């Protein structure tokens, strides 16, 4: 039997689904499934909200379709099946001098998932988003099989990149990798004492990879303090990666109470000497620091968590500061908060990035969190920014649609590709992204 009933959830575990899942291992099986029952695809379910869910319907689990189909060691062009994981590509090809051009915060993300959400990484300011490095992809829709590229079906490609899976199933993709010096990272860490200093440090950084951890509980003169990490690939003796651990059960509510989070953040900030430090790390430890803790989402307890991530234009940095003040005063933030500088690059009509500053903060799913996030979304819209749909779990359609100026182009292409709504998922229903109204 191809279809089996299964329960599944996004990484935040706030939204859940029950439905019929199929797990093909070959493209021929995938083609037969889609011709018989056109259904949205899912991967490792590492998007935080309901992007990967189709409650009450069918979905195709692509995780067994994870093969490398071809690789050109001279040019760095690689073709992979949609279920191939980014971390596995880094592990296999960094020793050969090549890395995926863009890597998100988890190596468990699949290539198709990276395309459908047009993910960004620690080098977005210099190299843009994942979708900009897609040479072509194979898209399955009903009994149709199309190879699309920027030169062939450009509009359809822009609706597919960042398009949340609404144009069909990405069976495989050809990507341009980028050269790297080896499979280690030279990482410089330094303390940043406050908000203005943090923005200046991000603006002035010349590093290929930059990311900032920010203390979302700090107030007053300490508002915006954190740690800036700057990284470059290198060669040499590879340190041992962190030993994998796991969270075996749901943590109790007090584990992320205000006093615990405040203490953790203080200690985490202090772990870097005032003078800063430079260390050598395995590539996985730098790009995917939480992957070494399996099931870390259980730290938020059985009710799960939300993540809010926004980007605002450079000129609206004060609006982002106001958001951080509101977060700090709420007492709801977790230790996971990130600040980055973004460039202009984006690959699709519904791609998240814009030039500016992006803030991402996790919140345990407790009283007040949804109201807080709703207010932050409204502040983002007022500042001319947008939220990241791969992380969202609470926004509404009227909030989201004005944030994406090419939304009408996206809708038109999706309507042509899927007029019968076979690929509609929970997030599309929640945000009403397929409605003509």
From TrEMBL:
Record key words, sorted: FAD, Flavoprotein
Lineage: Bacteria, Pseudomonadati, Pseudomonadota, Alphaproteobacteria, Rhodobacterales
GO MF terms, alphabetically ordered: FAD binding; oxidoreductase activity, acting on the CH-OH group of donors, oxygen as acceptor
Positions of the FAD-binding PCMH-type domain: 14-180
Matches recorded under SUPFAM superfamilies: FAD-binding/transporter-associated domain-like
Protein name (Swiss-Prot/TrEMBL): FAD-binding oxidoreductase
Domain of life, per lineage: Bacteria
